Amino acid sequence: MACEPNEPSGNHSIWAEARALEASIRVIRRAQGKKNPEDFPPHSPECFAAMDEFVRDVCRVLEVDLDEPDVEDDDDDDLHGAGAGG
What pLDDT band is residue 66 in, cutting at 50, 70 and 90? Predict the structure, then answer.
């Protein structure tokens, strides 16, 4: 993306998986003739639109429905057990 964050010091395998997913989606979008956010000037309306489409593609791969309202649960499936806040 336009800004490359520092690599987190936590679980490197999850970071590597996220980067691989991002790279795969970029290549697939390019093969489909779609633009990626870095193809546009930062902060331009086209860049924001491409970011939105990119996020939707990521969610599609992860089977996350962005149009479905959040459903409260008891966090039994939370990766870290106590929620992001601890």
Answer: confident
